[in-house]
Design brief:
Two copies of one chain form a homodimer. The first copy, chain A, is 31% helix and 24% strand. Chain A starts with 13 loop residues before the first helix and ends in an 18-residue tail after the last strand.
């Protein structure tokens, strides 16, 4: 949610990140509440109410987040809902219900509309939840807003990472982004399916309750989301580039797309894997680094150099269309 | 919510209404669930989960639902949230939390963004709820999606109206629509404020629990919403045109705008008053008619004629812009 107050990717400059921080501070002030019903408000992946109700909302806008020629509408709609469900995963919440709000151009046919709804239904069914309602309105551009409702008695937060904790990933953070680059280039690639068919790591999130000290999902890119987690926790992190998981052929595919594989790995988002810290030693997730006291994110490259990295990511907004830029 | 599956106003023809019915039937099938957690699913003003959680979502799209020159962004944003909160009122629910999802053009300034958020915060504060989270994304057109979360142990429904019940309104159903016509015409009018400053009838809804046999809010127009209520309840309704409440000077203002006052009264939406049926005699609401066994909605005019009326309303969609048409 609103830590992603970023106009989706308008974040490749330090100024933009500063703007984001200022915006979040302004929002936190505007929406300040002393309600005892609000356990976690603005500033995490999802809100949590007093009774453990977990709430989040996410939107996919045609032209900003996807193009229709990337895949069938059903697949794109499923993907939009997975993006929202991923916020529940990051909170260690169990999904209960989804609400869908679609804005559709008048040119969309009934069968296309049905395809969108089928995709939403599929995403809900996969995680054992139901689409309980929604809204449909006419507009100039297609957008899919999904609200997700879950429950968690012990929600994961971004703010609990401790110095010495290990930093983990529940899956490869760059494969989906590489797939998006392939789709943008019109290049047939196995990675395109990683973007088209993400999975919300619900089970992983549930298993982290009482285990992880802090958790986010990688929606904005590994660097940015790790910066979010570190800032919320008041710590820093050092990660090993070589330790970051990636699909087979990642480097070759990135080079074929004229991209720097490391930057795609560090900067591309929408992977919806979980990035978390834990004092414990876990075997099912990939350890990529350690929480340190020095604020910031430090990446150790293959030659052993330790480089402080700003929260750069992909900018598919600045030009008003889906145009990835290098970090 | 989805009974308003209408592409906002694409409903002035019998064919469009038939299409709407077919769409709802298709949706109900796509989103069919046997989850014990879903007490009220698609087909009412809001969904209700097993623990009395009430959920709804609504969207306002620039060009479809409003124009920026109608009023300050703060006022327009407050209004968008009130439209969503009105669904909670119709369910007799107490508001707990709001989530906001904004799609904004890149040209929107930070201060304009802040104004939108201030308006949302105002709407939430007025009903004792908090904005607990949201999302912000870039797009070509401004749209404001608001998810509302409430609670109700005894939710009001659309489906309980009984023959012989009285039909009531909690306020004037046409004043806001007349205000919209004035705004569209660029005419200064006291009614414009009725459109700009609606109020969700939360207290009224809460007081109807255990009293009303069926309830909806007038979001799509009196005729359409009464049709919805009657269809859900398997009954019909007969209402008196002269009994329908309206603001002082309504007829004169309508004529000045070259509109038929009766059609504005019957067909314009976004009033967010409650339309309900009850066996009891209530003094605080206005009785406008009676529930009958014959399916349909029948309007008795000033000359005593009883006319069957189709669920016609305003069409601010067909042309792709805000263009009201007569019912």
């Amino acid at each position: 949610m609103w830590l992603d107050l970023d106009l989706e990717g308008e974040l490749c400059s330090a100024e933009a990140v500063a703007t984001e921080d200022a915006r979040i501070a302004a929002l936190t002030e505007v929406f300040r509440t002393d309600s005892a019903d609000v356990r976690v408000g603005i500033g995490d992946d999802a809100a949590v109410l007093a009774d453990g109700l977990v709430l989040s909302v996410d939107v996919c806008v045609e032209g900003t987040h996807f193009r229709r020629d990337f895949g069938p509408l059903e697949v794109l709609a499923r993907r939009a809902a997975v993006g929202a469900l991923s916020d529940l995963a990051a909170m260690g919440a169990c999904p209960r219900a989804l609400l869908s709000s679609l804005v559709v151009p008048g040119t969309l046919s009934d069968s296309e509309l049905l395809a969108l709804h089928r995709g939403l239904a599929a995403a809900a069914t996969e995680v054992g939840a139901a689409v309980v309602g929604g809204n449909l309105a006419a507009g100039g551009e297609l957008s899919l807003t999904t609200t997700v409702v879950g429950r968690s008695t012990r929600p994961l937060r971004r703010c609990g990472a401790k110095v010495g904790d290990a930093v983990y990933l529940s899956g490869p953070p760059g494969d989906a982004g590489l797939g998006l680059l392939a789709l943008l280039a019109g290049r047939s690639s196995a990675f395109a399916d990683r973007w088209l068919w993400p999975r919300a790591h619900i089970e992983e999130g549930l298993s982290l309750r009482g285990v992880a000290s802090a958790c986010v999902d990688v929606s904005d890119g590994l660097l940015r989301d790790l910066h979010h987690l570190c800032a919320a926790s008041g710590v820093g992190a050092e990660i090993e580039l070589a330790a970051i998981p990636r699909g087979g052929g990642f480097e070759a595919e990135a080079r074929a797309l004229a991209q720097d594989p490391d930057e795609v790995l560090l900067g591309s988002g929408e992977a919806y894997v979980l990035l978390f810290t834990a004092p414990a030693s876990l075997t099912w997730a990939t350890r990529i680094g350690t929480v340190v006291s020095e604020p910031g994110v430090f990446v150790r490259d293959r030659s052993g150099r330790r480089i402080a990295r700003s929260p750069r990511g992909f900018d598919h907004f600045a030009s008003g269309e889906l145009t990835p830029v290098r970090g």
